[in-house]
Amino acid sequence: MKYYTGNNTGDVPGNLPDPYFWWEAGAMFGTLVDYWFLTGDTTYNDVVMQAMLHQVGDDKDFMPANQTRTEGNDDQGFWAMAAMSAAENKFPDPPEDQPQWLALAQAVFNEYAMRWDEATCGGGLRWQIFTFNNGFNYKNSISNGCFFNIAARLARFTGNQTYADWAQKIFDWEMSVDLITPDMKVYDGASVNDGANCAGHDLIQWSYNAGIFLHGSAVMYNITSGTDQQTWKTRVDGLLQETTGLFFNNSIMIEQACETVNLCDIDQQSFKGYLTRWMAGTTQMVPDTFDTIMPLLQNDAQAAAAACSGSPASGFNGRPGTACGFKWTGNSFDGLVGVGQQMNALSAMMYTLVNKQGSAAPVTAATGGTSKGNANAGMEAEYGPPKLAEITTGDRVAAGFLTTAIVFSVIGGGIFVVK
User: Fold this and answer.
1) pTM here?
2) CA 50 to chain centre
3) Which family does the UniProt entry place this protein in (predicted)?
């Protein structure tokens, strides 16, 4: 948490400092919710609560005024998934006069449903919400993956079939436009610019795209039966096979599109942490994946520990000797430091605490969940309806592409100590 200053007097709760984008802070707080659940350490709970509630916005939908102009669908989704994790893990509920975790996730789901764009490609979310942001004419897997993942988890938590129907619809759409292939490759996105109907696919495969669909598919397997369940099991198996084949080198996780050529940007340097989270979550929803996934995560934990031996470096805010590098395959510190690297290593460590017997699966409303929902949340939000796609302005502001979570310097203190 040495990188996070939002809880300091005069700073903005929930924000990470430059050069980190807003969505990455949402991913960070999702990681910290899981950290509390897996370890029982309440040290950061008040900070997490303060940050997440400060960023909900006037419409209680994670569209705060200080982010709205540049916010994309994927950015909003990472905050909503953090709220969903809080509901599933029974993270302390906010005071009654504050927005509740489940209702926040439902608000984002409802706004996504209103933004579903059948005018191009027969459906799908655009990357950006507003026309004036770069990426509005692009439909990408991470935005639709956020929608899919949230829908599947809401279906499981609430038992409402409408959410499950949407999850099915989103996955089917991804396949219909070849963003997910029959052999379960997940491509980045496709253009709808100048009348293009999801043409010009970007065929790059990122680990977090594979992970978000893997986990959502596992949740759908968990709540279905019969032929529907078998369909989702086939998808889980295919996504897992593609993931382990593409994003692991000698059983150690890599970001294959950029890591081997040293071109990963700040966002991409955090993706491994999300894949780790979603692979661990998959074992809870589809138990027979445990024996495939957990040995890989255990290997990653050892490799990450070896990479977390760095001395103080430019941009590192933690204790000497606890700087974590980006690459895990070299069995040493590579000198690349930041929020993403620390979060990746924390994730590699803590998600090995998930096991077949000791870690309870995420709760539902029927199995002890206490978070209160609102099925109509977000329906009246100023920024929810598709009409916002028609807003015009001369400004061109690059939206923050998705990513990561703040380093949490428990990796030098609470989770493990590297000398």
Assistant:
1) 0.90
2) 20
3) Belongs to the glycosyl hydrolase 76 family.
275 CB neighbour count, 10 Å cutoff: 27
Token couple for 163? 């959410």
pLDDT-based confidence at 18, cuts 50/70/90?
Answer: very high
Residue that is written with structure tokens 């493990």 in the block = 416
Q: What percent of the chain has pLDDT over 90?
A: 80
Q: Is residue 20 part of a domain?
A: yes
100-127 per-position pLDDT tens digit = 999 999 999 999 999 999 999 999 999 9
Closest CA to 246 of 172, 184, 300: 184
- Residue 74, pLDDT above cutoff 90: yes
Q: Please check whether residue 79 lies inside any domain of the structure.
A: yes
Q: What is each CA distance from 260 to 248, 255, 264, in whole angstroms?
A: 12, 8, 9
**Looking at the domain assignment, is residue 34 inside a domain?**
yes
Domains identified in the chain, total number: 1
Would you say residue 387 lies in a domain? no
Note the pLDDT of residue 313: 66
CB-based contacts of 111-116 (< 8 A; 24+ apart in sequence): 111/61, 111/76, 111/378, 111/381, 111/383, 111/384, 112/73, 112/77, 112/146, 112/147, 112/150, 113/166, 114/379, 114/384, 114/385, 114/386, 115/73, 115/384, 115/385, 115/386, 115/388, 115/389, 116/386
Answer for the pair 400, 70: CB distance below 8 angstroms, yes or no.
yes
Is the alpha carbon torsion for 246, 252, 258, 262 positive or negative?
Answer: negative
